[in-house]
């Protein structure tokens, strides 16, 4: 007898296609897949109809089978196999191991899943074998009869990483090459062992790789948890059916937005019959998991038995879902969508099989631009720039390199030069509730100091002003809409609080939260002036108590430049949102509420800061937006006036120079550069938090002041101001411009009279004169002095102050401090029903030598 090969001499291996065995005294070969089925024979197959079960005789005697949805109820039940594999028969032995409700639902769902899978669902491939570059696989037993057809979606887990370009996969005897849509064959190493991939049957020779890369651990967890998760999802409806479903359908769970999907349900319209497709052209699916809900065309479904008929407006409902339509294509082509109760879209599948997560397709790839900037390349050809250090300078702006993209997060590294590097991560799901109708974005920046922030002593007054159109970043900072770049003790160029990407991770509808700032009210008035296709994104970068040196760019003063850098950080993030969602970004506009912290500064110095800030904002933001128009800044006058170290207007007239107040500089720069600055006007008529706080506004006044800003930006009108000055002896004539052009009014009810309606005169002649009286008529103010001061010039000076007291005053509102009682007759009312007249600006005119800053 010839001796054979000893088994101890055969090479060991981790994988096998076949094994040797003994059957009725003969040595036989048996496929590993068949052996596995025999080992689980007591579980047996499960089919929708008895005819399907009877056609499958490849089970040993004693195997148990189940029929769940036969048209004849009497044929539904549990069966036992007799006879050898390939022969024998099935005999019914009892009912299914579920309740009546469970049997009906399970049977209906089994057939529905089978048909749905054939018409666009996702099938899991099993029995994966072969080699890394020439793999083989089978369909799950419960759906094997469907066959492989064009456009079918398959879930595939390679057993080995491919080493060659164009690996193949053989299913049901047909071999197809794996290719990337629009690119070419899958490259070496792109199909990683143990990772999950979504494939689409493109033709009889090609499989398209649509996305994937889920870890082996995630897949193992999903598969292992299938029965328990599915049982939890519909335990109230079907008792103990999870195991039967898993055996029949061989499904696995998926992960979206980092959360596991516990159940997937096909949903059909009322007239559904086997094989029918919805009017929208795709089967609609939804999901339920914990506090997330099943969503079908905008309709919330709690459990399977509650999935009822969809109305004829299914397309309209689906189109209304908050999905990024420009990124994903026609919203009606979304086959699977998953969102939370809050409305946040976590992800899903498009009709063409592309998986998306929170708006970003799973096919996105981390790339580094040649200039040295991290970016995200989408499968639709868009490139979203994340790093801007190659074109911007200053704090937080360094060259970056992409490290990888996974589960909606881009990891990249900042090159800090001599300081080393910092690894960072950014959420790139780009979640926002912007409606599809808005195709371009107007960024609105709030800047300055605490008067621009939420006044937390009072409750918020303004809710969501325009849901789906006016947005803000959902930051964890306080006040909630404020983007704060540094804590009081941390002012370095790069720190955890300076680059917290989490505060710009997602957007929500604009509203006030912990108090009332002017921001939302301003945006509410600004919106009607924008085109019907324009949405708005607001970010607040104000910082309480900070002067100009801390708010300009770092190389423009001795400050840190952190707050300014934060403006660029938010603008760059807004640009990324726009790119991801296919929107264009307009040049930002800014409201700058400031001046109190710098009230003692020479006006010409303050004006220089303003002009530098505006020029730098235009230069830097143009690099982000790609636009060349000016960044317009809406200023408002501070009513806190400091005449200088000597303490009074009269004393400075006698000194070497006359202090040019910051309030006058805020007005004059807007008059000189109307294309760059807008002066909203003074705010002395607004109520303060007296008696304890004479500077900050009440919530009502803060909201009202926001509406003043929105109106000024929208209309572009000049503030109410003195535009001409002439003196003849003891009579001074002032011409007034701006406002709405209406007649002037003396109002001592809203604003108390500080004396002479707020008009003051001082001179340093031998016999100084005072104001005798003030007359207001039409658009003219006539000031009569107690006498003719004579010819003035050189060191002999005369000063007319408008809303400026001679002594140093704080900002105490309508009953104290610097103010006038002169306004126009504008009929506008606020949303609170309050008057919105224009009040006369703070100003001063000098006769004689004005050494530092001549006033035209």
Q: Can you describe this structure?
A:
By secondary structure, the chain is an alpha+beta fold. 18% of the residues lie in helices and 28% in strands. The protein contains 15 helices and 49 strands. Strands 31, 32, 33, 34, 35, 36, 37 and 38 form an 8-stranded mixed sheet that branches. Strand 45 (771-777) and strand 46 (780-785) form a beta hairpin. Helix 5 (226-234) crosses helix 6 and helix 9 (519-526) packs parallel to helix 15. The longest helix is centred in the last third of the chain and has 23 residues, at 603-625. The chain is elongated and about 135 Å long.
- The tally of strands reads 49
In angstroms, what is the radius of gyration?
A: 37 Å
**Poorly predicted segments:** 99-106, 115-121, 214-362, 488-492, 645-652, 851-856
The separation of the N and C termini measures 122 Å
Number of alpha- plus pi-helical segments = 15
Cα shape: elongated
Helix content: 10-25%
Fraction of residues in β-strands: 25-35%
Give the overall pLDDT as a whole number: 74
Structural class by SSE content = alpha+beta
Biggest sheet layout: 8 strands, mixed
Structure in a nutshell:
Helix content is 18%, strand content 28%.
Write the layout of secondary structure elements.
Elements: E1 18-23, E2 26-31, H1 32-39, E3 46-47, H2 50-54, E4 64-67, E5 77-82, E6 89-94, H3 100-118, E7 122-130, E8 134-139, E9 153-156, E10 168-171, E11 174-180, E12 184-185, E13 196-201, E14 206-214, H4 216-224, H5 226-234, H6 242-249, E15 255-256, E16 259-260, E17 264-267, E18 284-287, E19 294-296, E20 299-301, H7 314-319, H8 325-328, E21 334-339, E22 345-350, E23 355-357, E24 360-361, E25 365-369, E26 373-377, E27 383-385, E28 400-406, E29 409-415, E30 421-427, E31 440-448, E32 470-473, E33 507-509, H9 519-526, E34 534-540, H10 548-551, H11 562-581, E35 584-585, E36 589-593, H12 603-625, E37 633-637, H13 649-654, H14 662-672, E38 677-682, E39 688-689, E40 693-697, H15 699-715, E41 721-728, E42 731-737, E43 745-746, E44 759-763, E45 771-777, E46 780-785, E47 798-802, E48 822-823, E49 843-847
Parallel strand pairs: 3-4, 7-9, 8-10, 11-14, 31-34, 31-35, 31-36, 32-34, 36-37, 37-38
Antiparallel strand pairs: 1-2, 4-5, 5-6, 7-8, 9-13, 10-11, 11-12, 13-14, 15-16, 17-18, 19-20, 21-22, 22-23, 23-24, 25-26, 26-27, 28-29, 29-30, 32-33, 39-40, 41-42, 42-46, 43-48, 44-47, 45-46, 47-49
């Amino acid at each position: 007898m010839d001796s054979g090969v000893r088994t101890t001499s055969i090479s060991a291996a981790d994988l096998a296609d076949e094994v040797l065995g003994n059957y009725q005294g003969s040595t036989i070969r048996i496929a590993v897949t068949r052996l596995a089925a025999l080992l689980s024979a007591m579980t047996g197959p499960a089919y929708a109809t008895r005819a399907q079960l009877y056609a499958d005789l490849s089970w040993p005697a004693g195997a148990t089978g189940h029929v769940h949805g036969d048209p004849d109820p009497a044929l539904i039940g549990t069966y036992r196999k007799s006879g050898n594999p390939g022969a024998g028969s099935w005999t019914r032995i009892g009912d299914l191991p579920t309740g009546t409700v469970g049997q009906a639902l399970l049977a209906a769902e089994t057939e529905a899943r089978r048909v749905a899978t054939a018409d666009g669902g996702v099938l899991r491939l099993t029995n994966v074998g072969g080699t890394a570059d020439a793999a083989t696989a089978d369909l799950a037993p419960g759906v094997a009869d469907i066959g492989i057809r064009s456009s079918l979606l398959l879930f595939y887990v390679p057993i080995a990483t491919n080493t060659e370009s164009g690996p193949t996969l053989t299913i049901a005897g047909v071999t197809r090459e794996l290719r990337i849509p629009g690119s070419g064959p899958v490259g070496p190493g792109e199909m990683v062992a143990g990772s999950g991939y979504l494939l689409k049957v493109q033709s009889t020779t090609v499989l398209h790789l649509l996305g994937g890369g889920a870890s082996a651990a995630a897949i193992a967890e999903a598969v292992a948890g299938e029965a328990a998760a599915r049982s939890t999802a519909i335990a109230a409806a079907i008792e103990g059916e999870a195991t039967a479903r898993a055996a029949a359908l061989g499904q696995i769970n998926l992960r979206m937005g980092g959360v596991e999907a516990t159940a997937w349900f096909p949903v059909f319209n009322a007239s559904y019959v086997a094989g029918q497709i919805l009017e929208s052209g795709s089967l609609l699916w939804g999901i339920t998991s914990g506090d997330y809900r099943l969503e079908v065309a905008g309709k919330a479904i709690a459990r399977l038995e509650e999935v009822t008929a969809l109305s004829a407006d299914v397309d309209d409902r689906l189109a209304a879902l908050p999905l990024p339509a420009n990124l994903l294509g026609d919203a009606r082509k979304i086959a699977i969508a998953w969102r939370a109760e809050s409305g946040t879209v976590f992800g899903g599948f498009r009709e063409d099989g592309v998986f998306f997560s929170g708006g970003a397709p799973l096919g996105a790839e981390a790339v580094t631009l040649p200039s040295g900037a991290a970016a995200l390349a989408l499968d639709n050809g868009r490139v979203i720039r994340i790093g801007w250090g190659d074109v911007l300078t200053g704090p937080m702006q360094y060259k970056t390199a992409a490290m990888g993209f996974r589960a909606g997060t881009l990891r990249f590294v900042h090159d800090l030069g001599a300081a080393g590097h910092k690894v960072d991560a950014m959420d790139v799901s780009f979640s926002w509730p912007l409606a599809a109708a808005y195709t371009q974005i107007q960024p609105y920046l709030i800047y300055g100091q605490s008067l621009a922030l939420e006044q937390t002593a009072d409750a918020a007054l303004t809710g969501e002003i325009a849901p789906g159109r006016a947005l803000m970043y959902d930051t964890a900072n306080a006040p909630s809409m404020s983007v704060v770049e540094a804590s009081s003790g941390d002012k370095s160029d790069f720190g955890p609080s300076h680059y917290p990407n989490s505060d710009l991770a997602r957007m929500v509808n604009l509203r006030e939260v912990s108090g009332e700032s002017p921001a939302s009210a301003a945006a509410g008035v600004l919106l009607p002036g924008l085109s019907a296709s324009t949405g708005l994104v607001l970010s607040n970068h104000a910082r309480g108590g900070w002067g100009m040196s801390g708010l300009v760019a770092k190389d423009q003063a001795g400050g840190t430049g952190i707050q300014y850098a934060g403006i660029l950080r938010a603008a760059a993030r807004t640009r990324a949102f726009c790119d991801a969602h296919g929107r264009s970004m307009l040049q930002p506009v800014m409201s700058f509420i400031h001046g109190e912290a710098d009230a003692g500064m020479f006006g010409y110095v303050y004006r220089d800061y303003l002009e530098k800030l505006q020029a730098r904002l235009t230069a830097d933001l143009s690099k982000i937006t790609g636009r060349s128009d000016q960044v317009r800044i809406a200023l408002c006058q501070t009513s806190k006036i400091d005449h200088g170290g000597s303490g009074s207007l009269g004393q400075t007239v006698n000194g070497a120079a006359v202090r040019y107040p910051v309030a006058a500089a805020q007005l004059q720069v807007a008059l000189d550069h109307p294309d760059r600055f807008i002066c909203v006007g003074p705010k002395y008529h607004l109520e303060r938090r007296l008696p304890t706080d004479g500077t900050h506004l009440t919530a009502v006044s803060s909201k009202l002041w926001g509406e003043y800003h929105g109106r000024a930006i929208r209309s572009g009108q000049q503030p109410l101001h003195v535009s001409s000055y002439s003196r003849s002896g003891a009579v001074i004539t002032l011409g007034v411009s701006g406002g709405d052009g209406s007649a002037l009014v003396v109002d001592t009810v809203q604003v108390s009279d500080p004396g002479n309606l707020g008009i003051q005169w001082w001179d340093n002649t031998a016999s100084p004169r005072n104001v005798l009286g003030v007359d207001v008529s039409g658009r003219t103010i006539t000031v009569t002095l107690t006498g003719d001061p004579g010819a003035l010039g050189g060191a002999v000076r005369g000063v007319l102050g408008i809303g400026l007291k001679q002594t140093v005053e704080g900002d105490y509102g309508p009953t104290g401090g610097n103010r006038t009682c002169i306004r126009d007759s504008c009929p506008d009312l606020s949303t609170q029903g309050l008057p919105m007249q224009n009040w006369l600006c703070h100003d001063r005119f000098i006769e004689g030598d004005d050494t530092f800053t001549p006033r035209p």
